[in-house]
Amino acid sequence: MVMPAPPSPFRIASLVPSVTELVVALGLASSLIARTGYCIHPAAALAGVPKVGGTKSVNLAKLERLAPTHVIVNVDENRHDTLLALREFVPEILVTHPCGPEDVGALIAQMVAAFGAVPGVAERGAALLAGWRTEMSATVADGRPPAPVLYLIWREPWMTVARDTYISRLLARINWLTLPAVDGGQSGAARYPTLSGNEAWLAEVDEVLLSSVPYAFKAVHIDEAQRLCPQARVRLVDGEALSWYGPRTVAGLRYLRELVG
Considering 51, 66, 135, 217, which has the largest number of Cβ atoms within 10 A of its Cβ? Predict the structure, then answer.
């Protein structure tokens, strides 16, 4: 007779879409008691998990009623005042801040360290780490010359990414260097610079990548973006593949290699 697994001692609320997906990939879906409205993957596993607002507008009263033992937050995606409020009623807060694909191994290890008491979590974590290491080793510049890239995440106004964001550091693995050549700091609006459209450096761009998230760029926007950078190739790209980290990093690295050809 097979005995059922003991119930998890954890009640996990994830306020970070990428980490919510990681929690499920580690086999902890049944321990998830709250998520944000942006935590949408994997849909089937999350269908019955209550939503507690957005990443920047968390319904703290609802979350407190759900009595989480652990809440997962992110420096870039969640507000500092949310973190301070959570400390009033949450026993354990896990703060995450991966700023590049090279940080994903530490993120997986962080989750395994927190929840490894649940059977199967350590083994799933090891498998995820193995896949991550393989794809990181395969995704390199291979002598490719640096190429200036504009990665657009919004229009009206145009918005792009600073060089110390996950997206920019992912692209840098194949020597696609995002412009403008600025860092945005640990958090805040400077991580996602706004463009006027008159910047002189736009003429230097080789590739314009129109992300599918958070703005859903479509084919109708290609000509508009082309006018920003007349000499560049303009393409629509899968923004989730290039911006979601954790278990999606493996597929994101493969997708990046496909883009560069």
Answer: 217
Strand order in the sheet with 70-74: 32-35, 12-14, 70-74, 92-96
Q: Which residues of 226-251 are buried (b: 16+ CB within 10 A; e: fewer)?
A: eebbeebebebbbbbbbbbbbbbbbe
Residue 3 pLDDT greater than 70, yes or no:
no
**What is the pLDDT, as a whole number, of residue 261?**
80
Q: Cα separation of 52 and 2, whole Å? A: 36
87 half-sphere exposure, CB direction, 13 A CA radius: 6
What backbone phi and psi angles, to 5 degrees, belong to 80? -65, -35
Place of tokens 């106004």: 157
Burial of 54 per CB tally in 10 Å (0-12, 13-18, 19+): middle
Domain range list for the chain: 12-137, 147-260
Fold of 12-137: Rossmann fold (3.40.50)
35-42 contacts: CB < 8 A, separation 24 or more? 39/14, 41/17, 41/240, 41/244, 41/248
Which of 3.40.50.1980, 3.40.630.30, 3.10.340.11, 3.40.50.1820 would CATH assign to domain 147-260?
3.40.50.1980
Question: pLDDT at residue 251 above 90?
Answer: yes
Q: Say how many CA atoms lie within 13 Å of 40 toward its Cβ.
A: 6
CA angle 120, 21, 18 (to 5 degrees): 130
CA distance 142 to 184: 28
